[in-house]
Amino acid sequence: MDTPFKRVRQAVDEEVYGLPSDYHTGYVGRVGQTTLDAANAAIKKRISRDDLAVVVVGTAGELAGAIAKAIPNLASTEVLPYDFEP
């Protein structure tokens, strides 16, 4: 939702951080133009597999095999019951 406060905050962000004047108004269009290859390259550049944490919510019996197959070098897993309270 666009509000006067939001527009002012975005204008201040552009000024303070030296962003282009269309940074906020053109954001959705720029994201829409991003290719899968470009997104994957950015992820590989910025995220280390060794430091990645993946959280999955679902039924372990149904998902554990698929997760192990999708992430073959998974360092560890922890399954908690749905009603777990620390």
What would your notes on this structure say?
By secondary structure, this protein is mainly α. It has one domain. It is 48% helix and 0% strand. The model has no long low-confidence stretch (mean pLDDT 91).
Q: What integer value in Å does the Rg equal? A: 20 Å
Task: Specify the helix fraction band.
Answer: 40-55%
* β-sheet strand percentage: under 5%
- The overall average pLDDT, rounded, is 91
Helix/strand order, N-terminal first: HHHH
Termini Cα gap: 37 Å
Shape: elongated
Into how many domains do the coordinates divide?
1
How would a textbook summarize the main sheet?
none
Number of helices: 4
The poorly predicted ranges are none
Class by SSE composition: mainly alpha
Number of strands: 0
Features:
86 residues; 48% helix; mainly alpha; 0% strand
Concise synopsis of the structure shown:
Helix content is 48%, strand content 0%. It is mainly α and 86 residues long.
Show the helix and strand layout.
Blueprint: H1 4-16, H2 27-32, H3 36-46, H4 60-70
